[in-house]
């Protein structure tokens, strides 16, 4: 069917090209004939109109063949276009046709040869429609943003580089507080499969998992009320059956976005596939206050340390502080001096010594036990008898 339409379209425009340029050749023939009568030229101008007609038929055929292929491609593209692009295309064509109608009035009144005028109008109409569609497609986002009830499209989301939330970061809950600060640019997107997994966790028979799932749903509801949160709009239809982590990575590639997570394994998988990952735990570690050796801290000792005569305290951000000689001051708020800071996989660990007279003999590292003076130290230090 398409082949028959292509042949018919090409033949029609070949005939139109023949008539248009044949008429143009006739005009030139008349001019040459007058010159021949006036100056006695022996050149026969009758060959011009057939030559121009043949050239017009060839141009019409090639133009029609190329245009028809473009129309078929455009038709296939139109089926896959989002509704907003279809509306912009139709409006662009209408504007092009209106401009063509205005041009046609001028052309038909200026050119006596109707065939030449029709050919010129069709050519200009094609150009004006193309320009109208191009103009509307380039301005569609700005024009539709002015309309009430405007809905986000996939192109809009891709340009904003959205942040895609996974299940772990939603259950964690800190993403809501971070979003309120305004540090996250672009849209926050919750895929449908993440929402389904969260619902499945909330319906779990295990009480702990059920509580975590419901907490995640509460966080999402709160975020949706307070900020622009896009949910289940641009999921991948061809990713059914894949694991949730793999779906997240594929979706992040399609949307040109970043994954927000607290999952260490997802972090590594996404990095291997060149997908940007924003890990909330890494952000929390980076935001912890910097503590330098010789700096003084006020901490509350809450329990014994693993080594002899040690006490353990915690900063507000959860960083562990190991205090030498702090065992006898458990339950008290004391002043300590930082001796060293150790960076571990789990985070930072601060080592400190007691400061001031409140430490007693323990602050000097010695304690009397059964007639012996024992130096409080780590397991590697030795005791000595006095």
Report on this model:
- The protein is an alpha/beta fold and 386 residues long.
- It folds into 3 domains: 2-145, no CATH class; 156-286, Rossmann fold; 292-375, OB fold (Dihydrolipoamide Acetyltransferase, E2P) (Beta Barrel).
- 55% of the residues lie in helices and 16% in strands.
- The protein contains 12 helices and 12 strands.
- The protein has helices at 2-39, 48-80, 83-110, 114-145, 154-159, 167-172, 174-181, 192-202, 207-226, 244-255, 264-272, 280-287; strands spanning 163-165, 188-190, 229-231, 258-261, 277-279, 296-304, 310-314, 320-324, 333-343, 348-354, 366-369, 372-375.
- A hairpin with a 5-residue loop joins strand 7 (310-314) and strand 8.
Helix count?
12
Tell me, rounded to a whole number, the average pLDDT.
76
Helix/strand class: alpha/beta
Largest sheet, in brief, is:
5 strands, parallel
| Largest beta sheet: strand ordering | 3-2-1-4-5
Give the H and E element order. HHHHHEHHEHHEHEHEHEEEEEEE
Alpha carbon gyration radius: 40 Å
Q: How many domains?
A: 3
Briefly characterize the structure.
The protein is an alpha/beta fold and 386 residues long. The protein contains twelve helices and twelve strands. The protein folds into three domains: 2-145, no CATH class; 156-286, 5'-nuclease (Rossmann fold, 3-Layer(aba) Sandwich), CATH 3.40.50; 292-375, Beta Barrel (OB fold (Dihydrolipoamide Acetyltransferase, E2P)).
What are the SSEs and their pairings?
Layout: H1 2-39, H2 48-80, H3 83-110, H4 114-145, H5 154-159, E1 163-165, H6 167-172, H7 174-181, E2 188-190, H8 192-202, H9 207-226, E3 229-231, H10 244-255, E4 258-261, H11 264-272, E5 277-279, H12 280-287, E6 296-304, E7 310-314, E8 320-324, E9 333-343, E10 348-354, E11 366-369, E12 372-375
Parallel strand pairs: 1-2, 1-4, 2-3, 4-5, 8-10
Antiparallel strand pairs: 6-7, 6-9, 7-8, 9-10, 11-12
Helix pairs in contact: 1-2, 1-4, 3-4, 8-9
């Amino acid at each position: 069917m398409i082949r028959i339409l292509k042949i018919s379209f090409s033949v029609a425009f070949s005939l139109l090209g023949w008539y248009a340029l044949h008429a143009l050749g006739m005009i030139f023939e008349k001019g040459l004939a007058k010159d021949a009568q006036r100056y006695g030229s022996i050149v026969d101008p009758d060959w011009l109109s057939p030559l121009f007609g043949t050239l017009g038929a060839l141009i019409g055929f090639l133009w029609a063949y190329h245009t028809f292929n473009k129309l078929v491609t455009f038709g296939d593209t139109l089926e896959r276009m989002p509704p907003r692009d279809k509306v912009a295309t139709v409006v662009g064509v209408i504007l092009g046709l209106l401009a063509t109608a205005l041009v046609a009035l001028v052309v038909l009144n200026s050119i006596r040869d109707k065939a030449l005028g029709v050919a010129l109008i069709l050519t200009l109409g094609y150009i004006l429609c193309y320009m109208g569609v191009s103009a509307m497609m380039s301005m569609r986002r700005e024009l539709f943003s002015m309309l009430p009830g405007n809905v986000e499209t996939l192109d809009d989301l891709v340009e904003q580089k959205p942040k895609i939330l996974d299940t772990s970061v939603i259950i964690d809950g800190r993403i809501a507080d971070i979003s309120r600060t305004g540090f996250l640019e672009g849209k926050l997107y919750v895929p449908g499969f993440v929402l389904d997994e969260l619902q499945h966790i909330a319906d779990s028979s295990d009480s702990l998992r059920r509580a975590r799932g419901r907490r995640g749903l509460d966080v999402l509801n709160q975020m949706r009320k307070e900020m622009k949160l896009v949910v289940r709009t641009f999921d991948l239809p061809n990713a059914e059956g894949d694991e949730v982590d793999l779906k997240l990575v594929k979706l992040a590639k399609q949307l040109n976005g970043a994954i927000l997570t607290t999952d260490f394994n997802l972090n590594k998988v996404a990095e291997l596939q060149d997908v940007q990952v924003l890990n909330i735990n890494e952000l929390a570690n980076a935001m912890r206050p910097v503590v330098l050796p010789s700096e003084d801290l006020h901490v509350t000792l809450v329990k014994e340390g693993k080594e002899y005569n040690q006490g353990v305290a915690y900063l507000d951000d959860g960083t562990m502080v190991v205090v030498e000689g702090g065992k006898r001051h458990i339950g008290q708020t004391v002043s300590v001096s930082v001796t060293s800071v150790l960076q571990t996989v789990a985070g930072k660990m601060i080592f400190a010594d007691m400061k001031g007279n409140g430490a007693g003999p323990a602050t000097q590292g010695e304690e009397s036990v059964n007639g012996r003076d024992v130096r409080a130290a780590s397991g590697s230090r030795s005791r000595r008898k006095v």
